[in-house]
Amino acid sequence: MTDLNTPIYDRAAAHGVTLEMQGAVAVVRLCRPAKRNALNDGLIEALRDVFQNLPAEAGAAVIHGEGDHFCAGLDLSELKERDAGEGIHHSRSWHVALNAVEQGRVPVVAALHGAVVGGGLELASACHIRVADDSTFFALPEGTRGIFVGGGGSVRIPKLIGAARMTDMMLTGRVYNAQDGERVGLSQYLVPAGTSLAKALELATRIATNAPLTNFALMHALPRIAEQPADHGFFTEALISSIAQAAPEAKARVRAFLEGKAAKVKKAD
Ligand code: 1HE
């Protein structure tokens, strides 16, 4: 088992990001509830460090926020007089941290509640699955604050809801409630208030039992295939599917089904 009392995790905890293992699931928690988990530079670095150094035994991760909100976005008190060059480096530091979430070793499930706004929505959109509860609301107040998204939101959010809806959110300050958020694709799951963490843990526990190569293909091949011209996409798909099915674990799983030892697909409720 990985020792969680190491300088990396201790430093992250001091900056408001804690990590604990629940079975094979790494549970990452934003812990700045007094500031609604607003993301300052220390917290962004801590997120980067934790996701770049997840314990080897983690097969999936969950991220959630302490207090009444998932995350209030960029810590506006740090929006100092940056010149353009400093602004670029600041934005790039978010890109590195959120890429560590999206393109790390294991799938990440976001458990959402309360405010998921600005950089908080950018963080949620870097995760692979978003579970919202009924208290969740989504907004991009950057537009009304006179700034722009800088944490990868302009790349990731249109892929979830389309550029037109993101433009509307930023131009008009539109806030989506949890139901409408699920309808337009901001979350894939909607659960009763107070239960998003439990649902996210349930999903992550199941994800952690998948063949690692399948999870890898979904995290690293699928997003690239989706951006390739169709002919390249078909070719990449042929390569990654043949690699995945050649793994001994895939053979064992298929054999188990054929021998009647694996679960069938059941009709949805
Ligand atoms: C903050 C922040 C913050 C709260 N930076 N300090 N994000 C925003 O524009 C959202 C701003 N925040 C809010 O609209 C509200 O705080 C919430 C809807 C999230 C929560 O409301 P509420 O009533 O629960 O809390 P509160 O009383 O507004 O805030 C509690 C404290 O947190 C208060 O500080 P206090 O010292 O007076 O107690 C707030 O000032 C503080 N706080 N949110 C700093 N964001 C890479 S680019 C990304 C660009 C963006 O993300 S822009 C969007 C920023």
What does this protein structure show overall?
This protein is an alpha/beta fold and 269 residues long. The protein folds into two domains: 7-207, 2-enoyl-CoA Hydratase, Chain A, domain 1, CATH 3.90.226.10; 212-258, Lyase 2-enoyl-coa Hydratase, Chain  A, domain 2, CATH 1.10.12. It is 49% helix and 14% strand. The chain has twelve helices and nine strands. The protein has helices at 7-14, 41-52, 84-102, 119-125, 142-145, 153-161, 163-172, 178-184, 196-207, 212-227, 230-246, 248-258, and strands at residues 17-22, 25-30, 60-65, 108-112, 115-117, 129-133, 137-139, 176-177, 189-191. The strands form two sheets. The chain has a six-stranded mixed sheet, sandwiched between helices. It has a three-stranded mixed sheet with strand order 5-7-8. The two termini are 38 Å apart. The model has no long low-confidence stretch (mean pLDDT 96). The chain binds 3-methylmercaptopropionate-CoA (MMPA-CoA) (1HE). 3-methylmercaptopropionate-CoA (MMPA-CoA) binds next to strand 5 and helix 5.
